[in-house]
Amino acid sequence: MKLPPMQDRFVDEWLIDFNGTQAAIRAGYSERSARSIAGRLLTKDNIQAEISRRQKDLQRRTEVTQERVVKELARVAFADATDFVQVETRIINRGDIEVPLELAVHKETAELSADQRAAIASIKQGANGVELKLHDKIKALELLGRHIGMFNDKLEVKATVENPFAGLSTEELRNVIDSG
Q: Is the pTM of this model over 0.90?
C-alpha cells in the first residue's frame, strides 16, 4: 500500500539516522509537534511494514546480512596478536659481551589470511617503524556476546515482603500514624 507523501518522506528520513523527531522535521512536520508525530507514525502498522520492506530491500541490495556481520565481528573478536607480530631475540656483540636484543617483527601482509587482514584497523609508518593497529577486540566480543544473548543488561529482582500493616482498618492505620 502506498503511503501518503509526507509519511513516505518520513520513512525515507527515518532510515537515514533512526531519529524519529529529526525525520519528522525533515519530512515537513512542525518542529513543535515533531516528537509526538514521530511517536505516532512509528506505531502505525503501515509505517512499520514500509520500514521493514525498505530495510530488507537495502539488505538484499547491499548483501549485508546478519550472518555476514556476525562473521566479520568474529574475525575481529578472535584475532590473535601473534598472528601479526612475533618477538625475536637477537644477540648483539658489544666487545666481549653478548647482549640479547628483543625485536618485534611483523609478518608480511601477503602472508596473512583474509580473516587476519579483516582484523587490521590500520597500518602506518611511524617514527619507530611500522605500526599495526587492530580493531577493538573487546567491543567485537561484546557485540557478539549481546547478539547471542550471553549478556543481560537488565537486573531482575524478585522479593516477597510481608506487609506488617496488612489487615488493619483505616482507623487502626490512622492510630499507627498518629502514634508516630
A: no
